[in-house]
User: What shape does this take?
Amino acid sequence: MESSSIKEKTIEEVATGERKFLHDISNKLVVAEGMGSFLSKALESNSSISDKEKQRMQKILTSVRAMAEMVKSRRDTLISLHKELT
Assistant: This one.
């Protein structure tokens, strides 16, 4: 009986650790998205920057936003799992 509660606690600790890790990554992605948006606006108003470079910046922002969404989805999954375990 005791080993079962140890396993449950370990799973809960792992889930909590992963949620914290994902939260920290999410914070960095928010900064990257904000700075990328700022740079994108600056590039748009700069006529010496080629359209190809502007498109590359948009691809960066699209990727950062997709990663942020993936992290959010994983955190939501972990929150649901945590609720099921408790």
